[in-house]
Amino acid sequence: MDVKAAVALAPGQPLSIEKVQLEGPKTGEVLVEIKATGVCHTDAYTLSGKDPEGLFPAILGHEGAGMVVEVGAGVISLKPGDHVIPLYIPECRQCEYCLSLKTNLCQAVRATQGRGLMPDGTSRFSLGGEKLYHYMGTSTFSNYTVLPEISLAKIREDAPFDKVCYIGCGVTTGIGAVINTAKVEPGSKVIVFGLGGIGLNVIQGAKMVGADMIIGVDINPKKRSLAEKFGMTHFVNPQEVVGDLVPYLVDLTKGGADYTFECIGNVKLMRQALESCHKGWGVSTIIGVAGAGEEISTRPFQLVTGRVWKGTAFGGARGRTDVPKIVDWYMDGKINIDDLITHVMPLEKINDAFELMHQGESIRSVIMF
Ligand code: NAD
Ligand code: AHE
Ligand code: ZN
C-alpha cells in the first residue's frame, strides 16, 4: 500500500515528505495505523549522523500511538481495532533477558532492529523501488507502519492518541528511571541535569515518589517555570554559577545528592552528575545518549568512595506489561502529560518540530496524522 511518511534521506538534511510503499505484515507482524507521534531528541540525534546505528534512507520516529489494521499469521495477542503503543524495546517474555527479570532489554529482535530491518532480515518500506530502513523497530513518522507483535503494547481505547504517544518514550523513560532504575525513596535529594522532554518527566517521577529536594540544572532559563510546576524546588543555571558546578551542587545539597540523572547526552555533564552525588551512597543514572566515539570518565576514587554509576533505557520499563499501566496513570490523573506537549502539528510540518527542539522552544512536539 501507499503510505505518507517523513523520510530521512541523508544525515543532517531535513526530512522529506514522501509517498512510500509499505508491504503488509508477515508472520508474527502487525500493520498499525499511526495516529500521533512525538518527536524525541533521539530522533534528532540519529538524523544528525552521530548515531553509530544510524542508517539512511530511513523512516525515523519511535514515540507513537495508533490502531491495529491487520495482523500477520500467528499473531495471537492483537486484533484489528486494538489501540497500541509501539515499543522500541520489545517484551517477548521468552528470551534469556526477559526471563531473568533483571532487565527490560529484551533481545528477541535487537540484532535485526539495529540494522534497520524486520526480524526476517528484510524491510517493509520502499521508495520508488529503493529500500528504506526501519528505525528502532518502530518508524512512527509514517501514517502506517509494520512491527513485530512483541513490539506493541495494547492500551485502553479511551486514551487519547495525541497525548499517550509520549508514553512510547519520554514519559516512561523519565518516570521509569526514577522508579525502576534509581528506585528513589521518599525524602531524597535529587538533581536533574537537563529540563527537556525527559528531564521534566524525571522531575515528575521524583515528586511522585516523595523526594524532598528536586534541583533542576539547565542553561535555558525558559525551562524554569514549567519545571517548578512539575515539582522542581531549586533551579541552577550553570552559566550563572561562579566557580565549578560540582562543589556548588554538593554545597546546595549539604553533602551531595542521593540521586542524580543526566538527561542531556553530554559526557562532561555525566561526570558532573556522578560527582554531585553523596559520598558513600549517591546514585547517578545516565539517560542521555552521547554521540559516536564519546566516552565518560571520572576518578575511580569517586566509585571507590561509594558513588554508583547506572544507565537506563526506556526507564527500565517492560513495555507490554508497564506501558498500559502508565496509560492508566495518565487517565486517572496521576501524571501530567498535557502540559509537556507544547506543540502539535501535521506531518508536513515535522521539520519545524526539530527546529523548535534545537531552539529550546518546545518540550514535546506531537505530530498528528
Ligand atoms: P531535549 O532537547 O528536550 O532536552 C535537553 C535539555 O538539556 C534542554 O532543556 C537543554 O536546554 C538542556 N541542555 C543542553 N545542554 C546543556 C548543558 N550544557 N547544561 C545544562 N543543560 C543543557 O531532549 P530530551 O528529549 O529531553 O532528551 C534528552 C536526552 O535523553 C537525549 O540525549 C536523548 O537522546 C536521551 N533519551 C534517552 C532515552 C533512554 O532510554 N536512555 C530515552 C529518551 C531520550
Ligand atoms: N543507537 C545508539 C544508542 C541509542 C540509545 O541509547 N537508545 C536508547 C533509547 S533512546 C530513546 O529515545 C535505548 O533504548 N537503547 C537500548 C538499545 O538496545 O538500543 C548507539 O549508540 O548505538
Ligand atoms: Zn526517545
TrEMBL record:
Its cofactor is Zn(2+). Residues 12-367 form the Enoyl reductase (ER) domain. Its EC number is 1.1.1.284. The keyword Repeat does not apply. Coiled coil: none annotated. Keywords: Metal-binding, NAD, Oxidoreductase, Zinc. It is an enzyme of class 1 (oxidoreductase). GO terms for cellular component: cytosol. GO terms for molecular function: alcohol dehydrogenase (NAD+) activity; S-(hydroxymethyl)glutathione dehydrogenase (NAD+) activity; S-(hydroxymethyl)glutathione dehydrogenase (NADP+) activity; S-nitrosoglutathione reductase (NADH) activity; zinc ion binding. CDD domains: alcohol_DH_class_III. InterPro entries: ADH-like_C (IPR013149), ADH-like_N (IPR013154), ADH_3 (IPR014183), ADH_Zn_CS (IPR002328), ER (IPR020843), GroES-like_sf (IPR011032), NAD(P)-bd_dom_sf (IPR036291). It catalyses: S-nitrosoglutathione + NADH + H(+) = S-(hydroxysulfenamide)glutathione + NAD(+); a primary alcohol + NAD(+) = an aldehyde + NADH + H(+); a secondary alcohol + NAD(+) = a ketone + NADH + H(+); S-(hydroxymethyl)glutathione + NAD(+) = S-formylglutathione + NADH + H(+). It holds the Pfam family ADH_N. GO terms for biological process: formaldehyde catabolic process. The keyword Zinc applies. It comes from the Bacteria. Belongs to the zinc-containing alcohol dehydrogenase family. Class-III subfamily. Has high formaldehyde dehydrogenase activity in the presence of glutathione and catalyzes the oxidation of normal alcohols in a reaction that is not GSH-dependent. In addition, hemithiolacetals other than those formed from GSH, including omega-thiol fatty acids, also are substrates. Also acts as a S-nitroso-glutathione reductase by catalyzing the NADH-dependent reduction of S-nitrosoglutathione. PANTHER family: ALCOHOL DEHYDROGENASE, ALCOHOL DEHYDROGENASE CLASS-3. This is S-(hydroxymethyl)glutathione dehydrogenase.
